[in-house]
Amino acid sequence: MKEAAKLHYNDADRFFSKFSDCLKTHIPINDTQLDFFNNRVNDENKVFLTMAEGYQQKTCKWLTAGIGGSSRAEELVLNKYSNCEIYGVDPTNVGNFSKIGKVLPFGVGKCK
């Protein structure tokens, strides 16, 4: 895990490429089983596993890591899955996230 963290800090593109390969190897999910929601920030898409047909939305809880001041993707999730509870993790830049979900003020990173 330490090696992965070092790689993330030094070469994000390589890290996410390796991370994607790892997911494909160990979690047999294809793109048709994922929902992509555009966040309108640097053309970022947030990716969620789709809900199984017949899933009771009243028990649905979404967790998004890294709000980054924009909650557009989570608003789209809430439009599609209106009965879900949405939680967002970000220690500083939460924007207007509290209007659509509960903010969890935590982060992971290098302390100075």
Describe this structure in words.
The structure is a single chain. This protein has 112 residues and is of the alpha/beta class. The protein has a domain at 30-104. The chain has helices at 2-10, 12-26, 72-80, and strands at residues 34-38, 45-49, 61-65, 85-89, 102-104. It is globular and about 35 Å long. The two termini are 21 Å apart. The model has no long low-confidence stretch (mean pLDDT 78).
Uncertain runs: none
Quote the distance from N terminus to C terminus. 21 Å
Helix content: 25-40%
By DSSP (H or I, 4+ residues per run), the number of helices equals 3
Q: What is the typical, i.e. mean, pLDDT? A: 78
Largest sheet: number of strands, sense, barrel closure = 3 strands, parallel
Tertiary shape:
globular
Compressed to H and E, one letter per element, the order equals: HHEEEHEE
- The secondary structure category is alpha/beta
Estimated share of beta-strand residues: 15-25%
Write down the Rg. 15 Å
* Total beta-strand segments: 5
| Spatial sequence of strands, sheet with the most strands | 3-4-5
